[in-house]
Write a structure and sequence with these properties.
The protein is of the alpha+beta class and 256 residues long. 53% of the residues lie in helices and 15% in strands. It has a four-stranded mixed β-sheet with strand order 3-2-1-7, with helices on one face. A three-stranded antiparallel β-sheet has the order 4-6-5.
């Protein structure tokens, strides 16, 4: 607890902030910030991502966890994963010699729309496209295309305004919005903005807080950092839906 408080104090000073300024940004009292920094109390766990965003650091950094030389970066993990996937698919296709692997990788890198993959009707499929990325899809139950939850997502993604809102959330590390601000952003009616925000809240992508301003209350929606994976999946669904709508199906190699 004390280390988190010390880290908050150090990060605050490094960013040229007073306790009052940090408290104002978060929406708490300066006394609360002071108690965190002295280790008297600890910030709510839901505030740690907010603090991390303010200081442009990771939540791990708030705990004082520093990446060691042995640890892999996110970029290295991503690169290694793609490498393993392509080795597996390419090996199945007979791309085993150094020259065959070179041609295989070269073709995929030169044309970002070129695809490769393998499908096994009993297990699932592996798919790779430089433009879209990679997918390992295990065979699902028969009701995959009749799920009420999936239908709700498809319906919402069919609306241009909703996709614009998702792109905004995807591009920002931290974003607060109200029904009115979303309506202004999308140039839509407040009922439409409310529908979009409610869907994202119901799916756990946004969280809501009611601010008491004395004579009135304002509902503020914020990105739930613990559900960023869901926001990412919305982007995946949208990207692959666009791919399905294209008539051309340019494959380097495909089995199954």
């Amino acid at each position: 607890m004390k280390q988190i408080g010390e880290n908050i104090a150090n990060l605050r000073r490094a960013n040229g902030m007073t306790q009052e300024k940090l408290a104002e940004i978060i929406g708490v009292s300066a006394q609360s910030v002071s108690k965190w920094e002295t280790g008297t109390t600890m910030p709510d766990i839901m505030l740690l991502p907010v603090l991390a965003d303010i200081f442009a650091v990771t939540v791990d950094a708030m705990y004082g966890r520093i990446k060691t030389d042995e640890a892999k970066s996110a970029e290295e993990v991503f690169s290694d994963t793609i490498e393993t996937l392509l080795n597996g698919v390419g090996g199945f296709m007979g791309q085993n010699s150094a020259e065959e692997k070179r041609k295989y990788r070269e073709a995929l890198s030169e044309d970002p729309h070129l695809k490769t993959g393998i499908m096994n009707c009993g297990e699932g499929a592996v798919f790779y496209c430089g433009e879209l990325g990679a997918v390992l899809f295990k065979k699902q139950k028969e009701e995959i295309f009749t799920s009420e939850g999936a239908c709700a997502v498809f319906d919402m993604l069919g609306e241009k305004g909703f996709r614009r809102l998702v792109r905004k959330l995807f591009a920002e590390t931290h974003s607060s919005m109200t029904i009115g601000s979303v309506a202004k952003l999308l140039s839509c009616e407040t009922d439409i903005a409310k529908k979009y925000l409610k869907a994202l809240f119901d799916w756990g992508i946004l969280r809501e807080s009611v601010l008491d301003l004395g004579e009135e209350q304002v509902t503020v929606f914020e990105l739930n950092h613990f559900a960023r994976n869901k926001l990412f999946m919305l982007g995946v669904v949208d990207a692959y839906a666009g791919e399905i709508s294209v008539k051309n199906n340019n494959m380097y190699c495909w089995a199954g």
